[in-house]
Amino acid sequence: MSYAYGRLRVLVVEDEPYTRNTIKRLLQQCGVRDVLEAPDGAQGFSLLLGSKPHVVFCDIHMEPVGGMDFLRMVRESTGEDISGTHVVFLTADALKDTVLAARDLRIDGYLVKPANILRIKARLDEYLVRNPDPR
Length: 135
Description:
The chain has helices at residues 2-5, 17-30, 41-51, 67-75, 80-83, 96-104, 117-130; strands at residues 9-13, 34-38, 55-58, 86-91, 109-112. It is of the alpha/beta class. It starts with a helix and ends in a 5-residue tail after the last helix.
């Protein structure tokens, strides 16, 4: 599956520049060549509409638009190619209520920071198992 990583377009929505850059580097180490970045959910949603990434890694606690609102906008979108976007929360928030709220919004994955390459790769693999030929 490693060759398929290079065909993925991944969006990282994270307000902390250092963390956003770290996630981007981990994705590039996996072989992902097309990594887009946004500092909050509003800009992330605009990028998502224009670029239609295969996978989104998104923080939860951001201003002015956080991850839950971002995910809600994605899932409530009228376009199936948008509403079905594979979204993984990558956050320090492991509270039960937060995890359950994410589940209710049909999150595709939930990673607790700090990120590492094995956990990032596992989430990419989950997408690739269902979509072996990303275009």
